Amino acid sequence: MKRKRLFGLWLAILSMLVGATAAGLKLSQRCLQGYDDFTAINLLGWFVCCSGVTFILLLLLLYPLRLFRWFSRWFFTWRILKRCLLAFAGLLILIFLFYAEEDLRGKHNWEKYKQHWEAQGGKLDFTSFIPAAVPDDQNFALTPLVASAYSRILDKNGHRIEPPNTNVVNRLKLEMYRANVLTSTNMLLNGWRIGKLPDLKAWQTYYRTMFITNRSPAGMPGMAPPFPGNTTWATVTNVINPMDTNEIISVEAYATNEFPFATQPQSPAVDVLLALSKFDAVIDELRQASRLPESRFPLNYDDQKPWETWNPAAESLKSCAFVLQLRATAEMAAAQNEKAMADIKLLMRLAESIHSEPLLNSQELRIAIINLGMQPIWAGLVQHQWSEAQLVELIKVLANVDFLSDFVFAARAECAHALKIVDRCRLDHNQGLLRAGGNDENISFQTRIEMFLTSAFPNGWYYQGQRVLCRAFMEGILPTVELHLRIVSPGRYESLMNPIYADIETMLPWNFYAHFMVPAFQPSHYARAQTGIDFARLACALERFRNLHGNYPETLDVLAPQFITAIPHDIINGQPLKYRRTDDGNFLLYSVGWDGKDDGGMPEKSTSWPFKREGDWVWQFPLN
Q1: Do 477 and 587 fall into the same domain?
Q2: For 438-459, what is each residue's pLDDT tens digit?
Q3: At residue 139, what are phi and psi to the nearest 5 degrees?
Q4: Cα–Cα distances in Å, from 396 out to 9, 135, 193, 507?
Q5: Tens digit of each residue's pLDDT (9 = 90 or more) over 336-378
Q6: What integer is the mean pLDDT of 223-245?
Q7: Is residue 381 domain-shared with residue 420, that is, in the same domain?
Q8: Cβ atoms of 526 and 500 closer than 8 Å
Q9: DSSP H helical segments within 173-300, as ranges?
C-alpha cells in the first residue's frame, strides 16, 4: 500500500510539472501575440486540465504492465524519488548555466564586433538610414494620385490601416494588358541588351484584336480561358473564319472598350499610342506631381514588425514605368521625340522617388525602372533619332545615376535592416517573423513546430546571428566595390564570400537568418546596371561625334572633353571599355562582364534573373 501511495505521489508530481509547463507556454504564447485576456482562472484551468490528462495517461500506460510490480519496488521508493528530484534540480541548474553562458558569450562577441565596425565609421543602427521628413506640400509621394497607391493600407504617417480602406481606388496602377487576351512572344519590350527593337506591330495587333476563338486564327494573340462571372464575352454567329473565308463560324467576341482603337488600322506606333491614350489623364497628373522637388513615402520604419516594412506603391510605380516605356518607344517610332524625352524623364523621376528608401526591394525596383527607360533611349540612338540638344540632355540625366554609390548605401542599409529584424526576433523569440502573413487559423504544422523550437533559443544565439550577418555585409559584400576607383571586383567578391557562405551553410541555429538574407543581395545587379548607364552616356557622345563628323571615331579617347566630360572605364577590371567600329558603319561597345573574360562582344546567353556568369555586357545595334 505504501508503494502504491508513492507511485501515485510520483505520478502526481510528474503530472503537475507537465501541467505547469503547458500553462506557462500557453501564457507566453498569448503574451507574445499581444493578448492580455489570459486570466488567472484560465491559467489554473490549463494547469488542472493538463495535469489531469497527463496523470490519467501515465496511469493507463504504466499500471497494466507486467513489470509494474518489479519496477515499482525498485523505483517508487523515497530514496529513488529523492534522487530523481536531485537529478531534476541538477538538470535545471545545468540548463540555467547553459543559457547564461550562451547569452553572455553571444552578447560579448556581438558587442565587441559591433564596436569594432562602429569605430571605423560603420553605421549599424537602422535609424541612421531612415530618410529625413520633407514638407507635405513639396512631397511627390503625398500627392493624391501617388497616395492612392498606398492609402488603402497606410495613412500619411505610415501607420497601418486595419481593416484596409476598401473605398480607396488605386489610380496609379496602370493596366497595360487586356483582361483575357494573352500576349505573344513578339511583344518583348526590354530587348536593348540583346539588340532587339520592340515589335510595335505585335502590340498593334494585340490592342486591335476584336474576336478570339479556340481555333486561334493566324495573326491573332492567344486566348485566355473564360472564368465564372466573366462579363466580357459574347457569342457572335455568322462570322467569316479568318483561316478559311468559305466557312461561317461562331466566335467569342471580346470586349473592345478596354482600350481605344480606330475603325481602320493606322501605323503600329499610332495605334499603340491611341490605345495608351487611355492613361493620358493619369500621366498628365503624374507629370504635374513630379515637379515637386522632394519624395518620401510614408513608411513606418519604426514598426514592431520590420520584416513587413515595404513600399506598397512599388507595384503601381512599376506598372507606370512599363506604360511610359511603351509610350516612349511608340513616340520615337512616330517621330515624336520631344514627347518621348518627356516620358523618359518622367520614368526616371519615378525611380528617383524611391532613391532614399533604405530597403533592398526599393533599390532593386529602382534598378528595374531605370532599366526600362534604357529601351527607348537605345532605340532612339541606334536609329539616329535624337537631336544634339536631346543627346546633351540625356547625358546630363544619365550622369545623375550612380549605382555604385547606391550599392554602398543599399548594402549598409540592408545590413542595418537585417540586424533590426534579428533583434526584434530576439525580443519575441521568432514568433512574429514565423507568424508573418498568417494568423493562428492558417499557420501550418511545420511553422508551429518551428515556433515551438525557436521559442527556446537563448538570446545569445540571436546575437551570434547578428554577428554572422554583419560579417557577411562588412567583410564580404561591401569590399566588393572600391568606390574611389569605380571598380566592382567579382574575383574579390568570390574570394571573400566563399568562406562566409561555407560558414553560413553549417548547421548552426544562429546561421538561420544569414542563410536567407545574405544571398538576396547581389553586387552583380548594380555592376550590370551601372555598366548600362555608362554605355548609354558613351553612346550619346558617340552619336554627337557622328552628327558632327559623319561617322563614328576610331577610339573613344577623342570624345572627351568635347562630347562627354570623362570616358567611363570598365567597372569590372578598371580597364578601358572594349570598342570597335563594325563593317556596316556602326560600332560595338562592351564590358568583359561578371566573369571577367573578354568573349569578343558575345552577349550573355540569358538576360533574366539570376544573371548567368558567362558572356559580355554589350551595347550593340539591332541584329535584324
Answers
A1: no
A2: 445 556 656 666 666 677 788 8
A3: -100, 110
A4: 85, 27, 22, 51
A5: 999 999 999 999 999 999 999 999 999 999 999 999 999 999 9
A6: 47
A7: no
A8: no
A9: 200-208, 268-276, 280-289
Same domain for 315 and 379, yes or no, is: yes
Same-domain pairing of 161 and 272: yes
Task: Give the distance, in angstroms, between the CA of residue 337 and the centroid of all CA atoms in the same chain.
Answer: 33
Contact 538, 558 (CB under 8 A): no
* Residue of 31 and 494 predicted with greater confidence: 494
Range of the domain at 102: 2-109
* Residue 26 exposure: Cα atoms within 13 Å on the Cβ side: 18
Cell (9 digits) for 602: 558575345
* 176 burial via Cβ count (<10 Å: 0-12, 13-18, 19+): buried
Residues in the chain: 624
C-alpha cell at 153: 493600407
Cβ atoms of 183 and 365 within 8 Å: the answer is: no
Contact yes or no for 349/339 (Cβ under 8 A):
no
- pLDDT score at 127: 92
Do you find a cis peptide bond into 561, omega within 30 degrees of 0?
Answer: yes
> For residues 167 and 146, what is the distance between their CA atoms, to the nearest angstrom?
16
DSSP alpha helices (H): ranges in 312-359? 314-333, 337-352
**How many secondary structure helices (H) and strands (E) does the chain include?**
19, 8
CB 199 within 8 A of CB 186: yes
pLDDT value of residue 160: 87
**CATH code of 558's domain:** 3.30.700
Spatial separation of the C-alpha atoms in residues 407 and 412, rounded to whole Å:
9
Which three cell numbers mark 589? 561597345
- What element of type H or E holds 591? strand 587-591
Give the model's confidence band at 249: pLDDT under 50 very low, under 70 low, under 90 confident, else very high.
low
Q: Grade residue 109 by pLDDT with cuts at 50, 70 and 90.
A: very high
d(CA 347, CA 325): 8
Query: What is the number of domains present in the chain?
Result: 4
Dihedral sign computed on CA atoms, order 386, 390, 395, 401: negative
Residue 132 CA to residue 135 CA, distance in Å, equals 10
- In tens, the pLDDT along 144-203 reads 999 999 999 999 888 888 889 999 999 999 999 877 666 665 677 778 988 888 899 989
Q: What are phi and psi of 214, to 5 degrees?
A: -65, -15
In terms of domains, do 89 and 161 share one?
no
Distance between CA atoms of 512 and 453, rounded to whole angstroms? 13
Beta bridge partners of 482: 487
Given this model, what pLDDT does residue 56 score? Answer: 75
